[in-house]
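can u pls check wat happens w/ zinc ion
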Amino acid sequence: MATAGKVIKCKAAVAWEAGKPLSIEEVEVAPPQAMEVRVKILFTSLCHTDVYFWEAKGQTPVFPRIFGHEAGGIVESVGEGVTDLAPGDHVLPVFTGECKECAHCKSAESNMCDLLRINTDRGVMIGDGQSRFSINGKPIFHFVGTSTFSEYTVMHVGCVAKINPEAPLDKVCVLSCGISTGLGASINVAKPPKGSTVAVFGLGAVGLAACEGARIAGASRIIGVDLNANRFEEARKFGCTEFVNPKDHNKPVQEVLAEMTNGGVDRSVECTGNINAMIQAFECVHDGWGVAVLVGVPHKDAEFKTHPMNFLNERTLKGTFFGNFKPRTDLPNVVEMYMKKELEVEKFITHSVPFSEINKAFDLMAKGEGIRCIIRMEH
Ligand code: NAD
Ligand code: ZN
């Protein structure tokens, strides 16, 4: 490719300061270094994790920064030592990587790669501690190793999953984070038995995908819990059978759920990021066998408090990143689930905007409207 080995000038949406609208700037994107790839992003979408770190209220502020981690694109060029990706490959970036060599990558049970595990405070590449983005020589920081709000981005090869080139990138881009996370939290981690009852806290994209996963696993009652009543109608399409709005009750939601389910739900999946919802999600599972799974990203000072008796009574608390999927090994198979129509992603995509209007996607999320908004890069 004509651009390989050269700096590419392209457009990126830069967050100069916490909470201020992104501004589209011309950035310089350096060529990929050893074990890195440069990817032309075609579609990206906004996930709540981007918004949390952009607001930086309960998180470490790292600015100026290029956010974005849910996306689909095509490899433009590869750095030294990259053998399993080549220019032209269709890929999904992932915020947490898979080096394939560490103890975690070798364990069938973990996706918490030692080398490439999600690190939200790091704004540089792990190879040399530098950023590949700059404006007039001034570095612009990366976000979770992906920074997809740019026409081109540089990623470690371990944070890039190669997928079926026939899969439409404008649809499967949402599998790069939120949808796979929720789906995996249910099917890989909560593992609801057939006929069981599952409570899902938070009916955003991740929670709806958790509902979908619970449905696919064969749960017969799926109870959605959300403070936003507008979410409820939508959730039915994802297998949700009942709804609870904690605001409609004058007792703790754990008690409401216990009454509805003869003592507690069999499984719960928390997809809010709210510490109270995390505690409720744990305390609402049935003693003896209940399993709760935390997925939401908490405030950095949040503390989980519950009485130890809740554990002694044989309840299990788990947490997961990226639904326990190994990004490079498993994500291509999630894409195949879509290709085989076992998983419908279209119903998660409610809005679409051109890159120049990326701030509209932030407004929609702030208003709690829709599920996923696809941002179309305009190369
Ligand atoms: P979202 O904002 O679209 O959805 C969150 C929903 O939770 C909203 O509908 C909101 O009304 C609801 N909610 C908030 N507080 C609540 C409470 N106390 N009780 C009940 N409902 C409540 O967000 P999303 O994109 O679906 O992401 C959900 C969470 O998952 C976020 O915290 C995000 O950062 C996290 N996440 C985690 C991973 C992971 O790998 N662990 C990956 C992606 C996203
Ligand atoms: Zn690893």
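Residues 98-99, 101-102, 104-105, 113-115 surround zinc ion (ligand 2) (CB under 6 Å).
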